[in-house]
């Protein structure tokens, strides 16, 4: 019998589903522990987190970079982030933390929204504020042999695009290896599955308001969604969102309301959705070239698909 | 002259043959010795699960078998994109009677 539990963690809605509901309590304990580890390493909103401590280190090298020891978890998360940066030619960029702050996203979203509601100006955002040099990706390196990372001094790593997905992947795998049955891990819409799937597969909905053609069945793939429909705020008199153009440090101007992709893992799916949002109008062709099944919702609500996203029989009949 | 020329050609062919065999042997040797993070495989697959922390790695968990990249320099080589997406198995449309287990949404 399938069991499911929904909860809030790391600033997003999370869900854990198990084909054997008796495994849920143990699965939840492991999940809480792993998400606690993730928060301690990657949170931009905790002064004691590893990324915040690294951001405070002064330059130690002649090229204004800093080399410092990093935990295995941070190095592995950076490995995923750098893979995503590579496969998207820099459209996914883990070095935009300062730019995100300059856009007003320097605290938990609930705090940012409350601040905007109170018309309280943020420390850094104003009509003339500029995020400054957006990307310091060329300086970012991971050296597992030495146990260190090298990054631009003062840079703030923002792993928001890939860390949840990578964590969902490894957590699902770990649950399936240590507990009976199959598992689905959903961390803020980044979904990974592992172990035995239920009969007919895991059914994922990509849109709760318009479910037709938004439901897919997966057995071992990852699914992710990115968009501007949830994480938006007002700052400096301007509506902003968290999908930044690495070239400018500002929110992407013309993008999709929501993009859902299927990948070999949640990390791969997330890299594709994030890149698609940055690409805007060019996303459909980019995803098609890479044979990534996707469902894209425009700002006006029009829905596009790439090959491989399954269409329901009724919609195909209606389209013909 | 002719026997001498034939002999010289035989020697040249033998030398070339030995050289080719030696080259193949060297290539094979290098291929066998290449570490997982060598340039020949680097960036061809996404990174794989590694322990989430030193304290939290489960003892029963198998070590990842796929390649994990060890160092990166990006954008300094803008045209040298190395990674590719892994083809995912096809997904299907569920039947109308199947319940939805989870929703993916932008976070």
List keywords for this structure.
heterodimer, A: 320 residues, alpha+beta, four-stranded antiparallel beta sheet, 9 helices, 15 strands, 31% helix, B: 107 residues, 1 helix, 2% strand, elongated
Explain how this protein is built.
- Chain A has 320 residues and is of the alpha+beta class.
- Chain A has helices at 24-42, 50-55, 72-87, 97-102, 109-117, 163-178, 266-279, 283-289, 313-319, and strands spanning 3-9, 12-18, 65-69, 141-143, 148-152, 183-187, 190-194, 202-205, 215-218, 222-227, 232-235, 238-241, 258-263, 294-297, 303-305.
- In chain A, the strands form five sheets. Chain A has a four-stranded antiparallel beta sheet with strand order 1-2-6-7. In chain A, strands 10-13-14-15 form a four-stranded antiparallel beta sheet, with helices on one face.
- In chain A, helix 1 packs antiparallel against helix 6, helix 6 (163-178) packs antiparallel against helix 7 and helix 7 (266-279) runs antiparallel to helix 8.
- Chain A is globular and about 60 Å long.
- Chain B is mostly helical and 107 residues long.
- Chain B is elongated and about 90 Å long.
- The N and C termini of chain B lie far apart (85 Å).
- At the A-B interface, strand 2, helix 1, helix 3, strand 4 and helix 6 of A face strand 1 of B.
- Strand 8 (202-205) of chain A pairs parallel with strand 1 of chain B.
Number of strands of chain B: 1
Rg over C-alpha atoms of chain A, rounded to the nearest angstrom: 20 Å
Q: Could you name the ranges of chain A where pLDDT drops below 50 across 5 or more consecutive residues? A: none
What does the average pLDDT of chain A come to? 91
Distance between the termini of chain A: 39 Å
The description of the largest β-sheet of chain B is: none
What proportion of the residues of chain A form beta strands (DSSP E)?
Answer: 15-25%
Topology:
The complex is a heterodimer of chains A (320) and B (107).
Chain A: E1 3-9, E2 12-18, H1 24-42, H2 50-55, E3 65-69, H3 72-87, H4 97-102, H5 109-117, E4 141-143, E5 148-152, H6 163-178, E6 183-187, E7 190-194, E8 202-205, E9 215-218, E10 222-227, E11 232-235, E12 238-241, E13 258-263, H7 266-279, H8 283-289, E14 294-297, E15 303-305, H9 313-319
Antiparallel strand pairs in A: 1-2, 2-6, 3-5, 4-5, 6-7, 8-9, 10-13, 11-12, 13-14, 14-15
Chain B: H1 2-33, E1 102-103
């Amino acid at each position: 019998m399938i069991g499911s539990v929904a909860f809030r963690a790391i600033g997003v809605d999370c869900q854990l589903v198990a084909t054997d509901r008796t495994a849920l309590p143990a699965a939840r304990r492991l999940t809480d522990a792993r998400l606690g580890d993730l928060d301690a390493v990657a949170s931009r909103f905790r002064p004691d987190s590893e990324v915040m401590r690294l951001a405070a280190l002064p330059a130690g090298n002649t090229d204004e970079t800093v080399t410092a020891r990093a935990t295995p978890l941070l190095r592995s998360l950076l490995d995923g982030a750098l893979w995503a940066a590579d496969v998207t030619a820099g459209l996914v960029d883990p070095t935009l933390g300062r730019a995100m702050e300059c856009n007003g996203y320097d605290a938990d979203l609930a705090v940012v929204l409350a601040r905007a509601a109170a018309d309280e100006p943020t420390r850094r955002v104003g009509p003339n504020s500029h995020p400054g040099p957006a990307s310091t990706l060329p300086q970012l390196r991971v050296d597992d042999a030495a146990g260190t990372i090298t990054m631009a001094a003062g840079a703030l790593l923002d792993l928001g695009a890939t860390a949840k997905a990578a964590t969902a992947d490894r957590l699902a795998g770990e649950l399936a290896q240590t507990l009976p049955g199959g598992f689905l891990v959903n961390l803020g819409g980044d979904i990974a599955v592992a172990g035995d799937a239920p009969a007919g597969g895991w059914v994922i909905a990509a849109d709760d308001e318009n479910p037709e053609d938004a439901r897919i069945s997966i057995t071992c793939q990852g699914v992710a969604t990115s968009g501007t429909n949830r994480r938006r705020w007002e700052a400096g008199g301007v509506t902003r969102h968290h999908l930044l153009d690495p070239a400018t440090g500002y929110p992407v101007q013309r993008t999709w309301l929501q993009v859902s992709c299927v990948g070999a893992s949640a990390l791969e799916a997330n890299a594709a959705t994030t890149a698609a949002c940055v690409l805007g109008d060019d996303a459909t062709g980019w995803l098609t070239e890479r044979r990534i099944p996707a469902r894209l919702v425009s700002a006006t609500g029009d829905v596009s698909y790439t090959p491989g996203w399954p269409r329901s029989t009724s919609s195909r009949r209606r389209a013909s | 002259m002719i026997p001498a020329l034939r002999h010289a050609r035989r020697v040249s062919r033998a030398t070339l043959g030995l050289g080719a065999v030696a080259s193949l042997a060297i290539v094979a040797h290098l291929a066998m010795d290449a570490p997982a993070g060598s340039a020949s495989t680097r960036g061809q697959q996404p990174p794989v699960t590694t322990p989430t922390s030193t304290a939290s790695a489960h003892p029963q968990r198998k070590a990842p078998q796929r390649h994990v990249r060890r160092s990166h320099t990006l954008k300094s080589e803008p045209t040298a994109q190395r990674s590719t997406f892994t083809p995912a198995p096809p997904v299907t449309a569920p039947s109308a009677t199947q319940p939805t287990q989870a929703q993916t949404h932008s976070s």
